[in-house]
UniProtKB/TrEMBL annotation:
Highest taxon above the source species: Bacteria
The protein's name: GNAT family N-acetyltransferase
Species name: Candidatus Avoscillospira avistercoris
GO molecular function (one): acyltransferase activity, transferring groups other than amino-acyl groups
Domain N-acetyltransferase stretches: 11-165
Length: 170
């Protein structure tokens, strides 16, 4: 299955709503995302991504056959970390385990490293999210360590893992 990343369209809001209104998807994301997720939430998110500074926020829809099935973004950090960026992503559950996320990660990293002065992209998946860790590894990210008791999700204190890729490694 071939995926592409592309700029968001306001018309993606309904597909985005379907993808993220799944509790299994939300259990692997940071808090603050509405549940259930509405089309208006999708429009608000897409509008924010389209109006964000393109040198600081690299936000794309993950698509299969032009249908938005998920979201991927790289977000520049600040101060001494201004050439470092954090990666975040998700796809609809029906597309899990098909290699789509690995391909989307490769595409966005190549884009960011070619179009910006970012030298390091990192991701911090929950330690229990083995599939996310594996997608990062298959995309060329290196495991840097476990961030012990680093988050509270669904009322539980959990570990996170730290992965990164450098612009010289792609």
């Amino acid at each position: 299955m071939i995926c592409k990343i592309r700029k968001w369209l306001l018309s993606d809001a309904e597909d985005l709503t379907v993808a993220i209104s799944n509790k299994k998807v939300q259990d692997n994301l940071r808090d603050g995302i509405p549940y259930p997720y509405t089309v208006q939430d999708g429009i608000n998110f897409i509008s924010a991504m389209l109006s964000a500074d393109e040198n600081d926020t690299f936000a794309f829809a993950i698509t299969v056959d032009e249908k938005a099935i998920g979201s991927i973004g790289v977000y520049r950090q600040e101060n001494i970390h201004r050439q470092t960026a954090e990666l975040g992503y998700y796809i609809a559950e029906e597309y899990w385990g098909k290699g789509i996320m690995t391909e989307a990660i490769k595409q966005i990293c190549q884009h960011v490293f070619q179009k910006s002065d970012i030298i390091r992209i990192y991701a911090e998946p929950f330690a229990y999210n083995i599939a996310s860790c594996r997608a990062l590894e298959k995309a060329g990210f290196q495991y840097e360590g476990t961030l012990r008791n680093n988050a509270v999700k669904n009322g539980k204190v959990i570990d996170m893992k730290m992965y990164s890729i450098l612009n010289t490694e792609l």
